[in-house]
Amino acid sequence: MAEAHAAPNAELLEWPKKDKRRFLHVVYRVGDLDRTIKFYTECFGMKLLRKRDIPEEKYSNAFLGFGSEETNFVVELTYNYGVSSYDIGTGFGHFAISTPDVYKLVEDIRAKSGVITREPGPVKGGQSIIAFVKDPDGYIFELIQRGPTPEPLCQVMLRVGDLDRSIKFYERALGMRVVKKVDKPEYKYTLAMLGYAEEHETTVLELTYNYGVTEYTKGDAYAQIAIGTDDVYKSAEVVSLVTQELGGKITRQPGPIPGLNTKITSFLDPDGWKTVLVDNEDFLKELHKE
Ligand SMILES: N[C@@H](CCC(=O)N[C@@H](CS)C(=O)NCC(=O)O)C(=O)O
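Structure tokens for the assembled complex are given below, as produced in the milestone run.
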């Protein structure tokens, strides 16, 4: 019986690597949409790409980024009517923005009253120049010094309790590959960058394991990363198989969102971090409709 299933599953498990995958956006909640839009446009130089209000559901969204949503990873801010603050929890790490001159960007941000939580300088135990900035809701943005890139919004960092398990999950369930792995025993952490292309070409998911820490709080602020796929149904079948082995679970079976008709599926990884897979064609239709 086990043998009879081995071949079809083996073929199915190849699907995420053959699929057309791309990081679309990261979704999180903010207490004041206009305040965050002002901060991201004035301090980071992002553009406001679109806004939508869904009064029936009592929320609004704003999409901001460094390029068109057709090609770039962007942030999707959610404002829930009447909710002015959220708990970010201890598991969320940061978003990252690359810039050719971190020192200059930090001075510009400081001049606009932005909060710098880590002054520019070489990363502990390394050479990259970094700084940390806190946005109005308390989300941390790492600024990383790098040459020009098509994707300045370059990382989402989340903390995980078992890095090998997470790497297996994102490789098998999502078809990502490890583009960098660094162990810093002197600072007691290991990190892995996972994605669909090299770090300087695209956004990566940075997973951090702090020695001995297996649990974090999730709060209610950060929501999920959305990734494009050509087939949500097949993709969900793969995720379902992988969760049986590594943990995590499907939280939304694949299918169209009522009213919107965009096909999606969503699931949690073994640490409880959520990913949404969105049909590539439906996503483009949605963009052109608005
Ligand atoms: N304990 C850290 C481990 C990750 C870490 O230290 N990352 C580096 C960046 S890759 C960092 O934040 N360094 C701080 C610094 O250089 O000041 C955490 O969970 O955030």
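Residues 2-289 form a domain with the 2,3-Dihydroxybiphenyl 1,2-Dioxygenase; domain 1 fold (CATH 3.10.180.10). The chain has a mean pLDDT of 96. Further analysis is deferred to the final report.
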